[in-house]
Automatic annotation (TrEMBL):
GO molecular function term, any single one: peptidase activity
GO BP terms, alphabetized: proteolysis
Protein name, UniProt field: Serine protease
Highest classification ranks of the organism: Bacteria, Bacillati, Bacillota, Bacilli, Bacillales
Pfam family, one: CAP_assoc_N
Length: 385
């Protein structure tokens, strides 16, 4: 079941490098007091006001001005431009100073960023990702730990018997069976074959699912970015068997966990897209939650409720003042990952999620009674006070 509705507001000589022992590396890896990120090759120090550009479909458009004293991580150096991540670039010119870390630090961070896999130990997770930012409940009755560094290198990982049982990530350095974020569908098929399932008969394809020997591998496809992989979700069959029904059982704890996870996913997405993260707004979340409850209880799906109130009316009635506002709604998606990635593939919803017109967001989730258990209703309200 898949429903969406849209509200638009608008990387001859021989040299031998010294071997670096992993024991000499600390986690995380720091360079001059700042964490060295996976995939980072250097940094730029701003000497004079300099323009940062956003790569939009191959065209460099103005994003913002970098000021003296600021510094930015560099992930690639191509054609006189340094790539800062999230589609942002800065031109190699006299107004900036480019620096690179030592070979030892680069070796350390490469060792730390080795891809995690289903069945890896809990110790490997903490060694490579550090301490979890948050923990939520998932639809299998297990705990999901959320890891990121200011929403970069985002991971959500669940354990079963002290081993990784599910893993969702948007980390561009992550690979599973040689496939990673930003690979195309063709590259995915070249690695894993064409024996997979998709989301029904939809085109373009939004999700490709492989039934691998020990786990299910879901590759989310960004239809607005040349159909490249935008995220990966792996789920061990043992974990899936803890909830054999398609839809999860209703619980207030799970509803709250979906809300938290969606908030985290929105900000992880904004970080990928190179826009500022949003703050959580409690009053706004209350308004969003009430709308999800209303839709689920009264069996309708619309931005306008049965009293004819728009999202703006409901925000105002909830005591929320705003200059800009927008709303996303969805239903029928069994977990927050599927809901979020589907919203990103719907252009109107995508605009809301990554818009710089908003500074706050509130998320509300409600599980309504359904023939096969319960079905989630999702509401996301975006505002700028």
């Amino acid at each position: 079941m898949k429903k969406l509705s849209i509200l638009i507001l608008l990387l001859f000589s021989l040299s031998v490098a010294p071997m670096i022992s992993s024991a000499a590396c600390t986690t995380p890896v720091y360079w001059d007091g700042v964490e060295l990120k996976s995939g980072q090759i250097g940094r730029v120090l701003i000497q004079k006001p300099t323009t940062i550009y956003k790569n939009v479909n191959g065209n460099f458009e103005f994003s913002r001005t970098a000021h003296p004293g600021e510094n930015y991580r560099v992930y690639a150096n191509k054609s006189t431009y340094y790539h800062l991540g999230g589609g942002l670039v800065i031109k190699d010119e006299a107004s900036i100073l480019y620096q690179t870390p030592s070979k030892q630090k680069l070796s350390c961070v490469k060792n730390v960023s080795t891809s995690l896999a289903i069945g890896d130990s809990a110790t490997s997770v903490s060694t490579k990702l550090g301490t979890a930012q948050k923990k939520v409940t998932n639809e299998f009755g297990a705990s999901t730990s959320i890891y990121h560094q200011n929403y970069q290198n985002f991971y959500a990982i669940s354990l079963l018997n002290n081993k990784i049982a599910s893993l969702y990530t948007k980390d561009k350095q992550y690979k599973v069976n040689g496939v990673g974020i930003s690979n195309t569908v063709s590259e995915l098929e070249n690695k894993l074959g064409t024996n997979y399932q998709t989301t029904g008969n939809t085109y373009p394809v939004e999700i490709i699912t492989y039934q691998l020997p020990k786990y299910e591998a879901n590759f989310f496809i960004d239809v607005h970015n040349d159909s490249k992989i935008s995220a990966i979700l792996l789920v061990d069959y043992q974990l899936m068997n803890k909830n054999p029904n398609l839809y999860p059982k209703k619980s207030a704890s799970l509803e709250a966990s979906y809300e938290t996870l969606l908030f985290e996913l929105i900000n992880a997405e904004r970080k990928v897209q190179g826009v500022p993260v949003l703050q959580n707004a409690t009053k706004v979340a209350t308004v969003a939650r009430k709308h999800s409850v209303d839709m689920g209880t009264n069996e309708y799906f619309s931005h306008e409720n049965l009293q004819g109130q728009s999202p703006f009316d409901r925000l105002a009635n909830g005591g929320v003042t705003f200059r800009n506002a927008g709303e996303n709604i969805a239903t029928g998606y069994t977990n927050a990952y599927f809901a979020h990635e589907a919203l990103m593939n719907s252009l109107g919803h995508r605009k809301n999620i990554v818009s710089t017109a908003y500074t706050h967001v509130g998320v509300g989730v409600f599980f309504a009674k359904w023939t096969y258990g319960s079905i989630p209703y999702y509401t996301e309200n975006f505002i700028k006070p």
